[in-house]
Amino acid sequence: MSIELPRPKYISFDVIGTLIYFEMRRTVEPIVADRLPGERLEAFFNRFRLDRYDEIMEYRPYDEILDRSFRRTCARFGLEVADEDVAAIQRDVITWGAHPDVPEPLAKMAEHFPLIALSNADDRHLNAFIPRLGAPFRAVYTAEQSGAYKPRLRAFDYMLEQLDAEPGDFLHISSHQLYDHVPMAELGFTNKVFLDRGYDPDLPHYGAVRVSSLDEVNRALGIV
Q: 105 and 134 in contact (C-beta within 8 Å)?
């Protein structure tokens, strides 16, 4: 079924997971897998996801978020943590690259709309990630700049303030409903796309249109 989307003033994006391939499990599993049997390994990664979500409710540098959440999860599962393991995770994250299906449709989108990045990371991460996406961005906003991680409302308010914009000016695209679309619905962002990459369940109550590719978004915007 074809979809149509209102044409916005800006198209904003979550970055890690939506545009950059989120490889946390590939990064962390070699460090813990030999110490956790199968079911406990799955439970570990589920809890690590929750601990990261909890840690970002107070701003700290992203490397510290990774450090604190990993140690917190390991403590729950009775695993000792070596400093070099934490450092290896922090180093690996910044090497992540774009999803293969991103650069071409993103570049086409950038020919028609100004692109905005709103990311749950620090400046140094986005300085590495944005050049890998293959398209120009009008502005890049980070948790380091706003002093808040999504889903904190301050992260979205900061973007609006910097652009002197209103929620109705945006089409926001994210693969993370809980970080992005749930709080944005409460703030009055009505033009939202859920790019389903398997991280979050579809939550249609919050008004995001589900797609499986940026090509679908381009077609819905009349970009051919």
A: no
